[in-house]
Amino acid sequence: MLLPNELEVLVVESQSNMRAQLRTMLASIGIENAQYAVSATAAMKRLREHRYDLILCEYNLGEGQDGQHLLEDLHAHGIIPLDTVFVMITAERNYERVTSACELSPNDYILKPLNAETLRVRLLRAFQKRDIFLPAWQLMRLGDPVGAIEYCRIARDENPQHLTDLLRLQAQLHASIGQLDEAESLYREILGSRSIPWAELELARLLVLKKRYVDAEDILVGLVARHERFIAAYELLAQLREETGRPDEACATLDAAAEKSPHRVARLRHLGTLSLAIGNPAGAEEALAEVVRKGKYSEFRDPEDHVRLVQAQLAQDKVQDAQGTIADLDRSMGRQPKGEVCKAVCSALVHAHNNDRARAQAALKAAAQAGGTVRELSVGLRQDLIKACFDQDMQEQASELVTDLLRSSADERTIETTRAVLDQRGLGHLSEQIEARIQTEVKSLVTTGAEKARAGDFDGAVAEMMSAARKLPGNPHVLFNAALALLRHIENRGWNDAFASQAHGLIQRAQRLSPANPRLAAITEFMHALIKRYGIRPEKVMARPVRTF
Predict the structure, then answer these.
(1) Model pTM?
(2) Tens of pLDDT along 329-363?
(3) Residue 291 to residue 74: CA distance in whole angstroms
(4) Distance between CA atoms of 61 and 172, rounded to whole angstroms?
(5) How far is the C-alpha of 331 from the C-alpha of 368, rounded, in Å?
(6) Is the pLDDT of residue 95 over 80?
(7) CATH at residue 120
(8) 15, 17, 29, 268: which has the fewest C-beta neighbours closer than 10 Å?
(9) Name one GO biological process term (predicted).
């Protein structure tokens, strides 16, 4: 049985002879019109411009990013949808590297040498499975996880061979709308017959969300003891230990993961940041230098990595090395808005280290006055900027940065850690004042929007709440009410694709900030009811229908 030749396929392979072999193999199994990219950079350009059904990617791509780093970027930045099948091809038998590739969840990976029949069978199996899950993914893209849950319930009976994976997706969907108890029940059902490592991991993740840290840690400690190369379990265990105030243990856990799978940038970045926090600048420098090196080949390189590297170098009194890192940042990203802010922060750190207060203050003012660009920085770096301003007697700028941080990133952990920053400097009262002021502002904005909706002014309610969401983009309460205003408009004025899309985006943002929020399920079910009421189908709002076969 041949795969249909209308599949849109991208092959990422740097070696011309291997490209020729793959072209012949693909033609022999019915795929005549594959496109080719010779590097991760070329592949990323094509993937930004076009959607493919299948990506065949060689692990070793020569100079620049390898296949693993490409896949990491594709996942992290949402470049490819769930229905794109990604298959890693590699001759690499080094277990650390294979483990790294596997943990990034390609649909399959194939070790070379391979033949056409092996490729055909593996691809056919991957696409047959994809087609079973495709309706659920389409509903998810539409913004209807409740509909996707209903589909999973039906599909479980019709596709018993994929029962476990359908239960898994259903559990993830329940968790995504705050139905944590339902998700936990499904994971326990999966584990009822046998031990499955990923199900134990997902159960532990739910327990962390529920703040049942002891139960979650018991599961994770058992997992890494039985499966020493289950890297995702180490990462969640490190997160748990960090959240429960044990940064040293968290860092040791991440270090163990990095030893077993040393090639993932996000983990190295986290390890470097944690090493800094626990006073291990040498370990931080080692991890962050590797992050900066790998980042040179990615279009998603982050200038914050240079800032963290400078912090690690200055903590060891390596001022000349820090200056070199700043020069590298200037060359590679210094003209980007975020790069300029990070360069200013780095300069302030060096001047402060040299006890040059005037120049440190000038650099901090330049960073703090960057306005919206400061919001692009991570919460941790924004908090470091706040600390630096306080340390340089710039209380006014520090207070403004605290206010902006709590407006734009008001999740529970950010609020707690920002309070701690101020408490450490004897400024707990300032935190209380700023939080109270923001709460008053939120209440006023939400009340105004609600009053307009009650008066039948649905256009006005949407305008008011979308304005509030722009002012307070990290406040879950505001985001929920902005989404509700959009949905009330649809309920009373008729279906509106743009409003539905905006509501979906706001709900997703609120979910990321407050994943256990009890309002998630109610507002998601409201959107589902509207989708059903107006007979909206995924294909009506898809940019491009996905082929099935």
Answers:
(1) 0.87
(2) 999 998 889 999 999 999 999 999 999 999 999 99
(3) 17
(4) 33
(5) 22
(6) no
(7) 3.40.50.2300
(8) 17
(9) phosphorelay signal transduction system
